Amino acid sequence: MEKQLTPRDHSLFLKAFRTYLQYVNSWLYFRKEHIVGLENVPANGTPVVVVSNHQNCLNDPLCVCLKLTDRRMNFLARANVFNNPIFNKALRALGLLPAYRMSHEGYSAITKNQQTMDAAGQALQDGETVMLYPEGGHQDKRWLGTFKIGYLRIAFDAAEKMDFKQDVMILPSCNHYSNYFHARTDMLIKFGTPISLKPYYERYQEAPRETMMEINKIVHTAIREMMLHVDDLEHYDQIDFLRETGYGRRYAIANGFKFNYLPSRLLSDQKLVAAMQEAYKENPEEMEKVYKDTAYLADELKKLKIRDWLFIRKPGVGSAMLRGLGLLLLLPLFLISIIPTGLLFIIPKIFLKKLIKDHMFNSSFHIGVSVFISVPICLIIPVVLLWIFAGFWWALGYFVAFPVMFILVWNYLRLFWKFIGTCIFVKKSNRAKINELKELRASIYQRLDNMLK
Predict the structure, then answer these.
(1) Environment class of residue 355 by beta-carbon count within 10 Å: exposed (0-12), middle (13-18) or buried (19+)?
(2) Nearest-10 crossing angle of helices 113-125, 150-161
(3) Share of the chain above pLDDT 70, in %
(4) Residues 70 and 44: beta-carbon distance below 8 Å
């Protein structure tokens, strides 16, 4: 008979730190956050192992941690993010545990994993939640790698220590981002149907590895079906370009999806990618030509420093002038807002090129630097000083206005670069090249339409 488990309470420090992280993550960094399948998450007090794809480093566990605030969360993360003493204390306070890999930390460090496994197992025995990424590292593209079965060893070891009387649940999950690298974009967390290990207990005791391999396959399939998984890595860049630009928008609308609503767009992208991969199997020569032309189109747009959205909006000289006038009118607000928020844009870039070699760490680094350096300098210290020298209401006013100013600056810069792109698009000397690319783009779309029917 199962007993009611009581997870550890959150310490006051952890509650405060999570609230602060929520502010930086949800109010400043991300524009919108979507949660799908929250009803699938087992009740607090149930031993749960959340298993997910891993594509955005620290952001993946951080976003889940900040959404499942009713439970004690424990995460296994790559050990090298614990090297910094400050990060080490903060990450452990959040429930992160180091996972050592032979390819990164060396063979001698692998023995330390037993302590981590024991801590994760104990958390399950206490009715807490453990989250793992069984790919063993993050991917740099939207695809799902093979799973190691360490998460199932932790789960079954915990069940065994509870005499196989307590159910342990495996909860498939996936993270999805509209953009990996930029702030003020959208993110999505999806939770699938939980898998109870209790029906497997007897079989596990007879054939542990075979049982874990069977469950691992079920979990892998569940996550792959929830996320955007691209099998055709040879043509990944072209597929990604088509789904992110005008063709992806057109395909979504034609098939009844909402392109600007991330959960709906994910479903559209899944259908589009599957259709393109199937079309390649049926018409490899034609699709090879489409991908070749797509690569050329993407490369030429990059050389011109313009984006595909310009072919959708088709701006003229008048539009460029209106954009320029709008930027000029908003310039005073931008200058006022950039003074207190500017370091949020500058500080991460100072260190980014020197410290971060893996570009998939970019957004995690931005959030980390914002949490520990930029936001304290730009927000917390000024609020404290205003409270001391000017009074509570001045401090409160600054605190409320700060995210508004940050968002204003971000959008102003975004509009500025759109203005630059518009000017390049309408520039007379670029007209012949723009017309060439416009015709090529239309040809690609038409050929795709014919093959994806």
Answers:
(1) exposed
(2) 50
(3) 89
(4) yes
Residue 60 tokens read as: 């993946």
Which two tokens mark 159? 């069940």
What is the C-alpha separation between 24 and 63, in angstroms, rounded? 11
Give the C-alpha separation, 52 to 61, whole Å.
9
The two tokens of residue 375 are 């936001």
Which residue carries 């070891």 as its tokens? 157
CB < 8 Å & 24+ apart, contacts of 367-374: 367/24, 367/25, 367/29, 367/58, 367/59, 367/62, 368/58, 368/87, 370/24, 370/28, 370/29, 370/344, 371/20, 371/21, 371/24, 372/86, 372/87, 372/90, 373/347, 374/343, 374/344, 374/347, 374/348
- Can you tell me whether residue 260 is helix, strand or coil? coil
The token duo for 1 is 């008979």
Q: What is the pLDDT of residues 64-112, one digit of tens each?
A: 877 777 778 888 777 776 777 766 776 776 677 777 766 565 556 666 7
Task: Tell me whether strands 169-177 and 195-196 are parallel, antiparallel or unpaired.
Answer: antiparallel
* Distance in angstroms (rounded) separating the CA atoms of residues 132 and 124: 13
Single pTM value for the model: 0.88
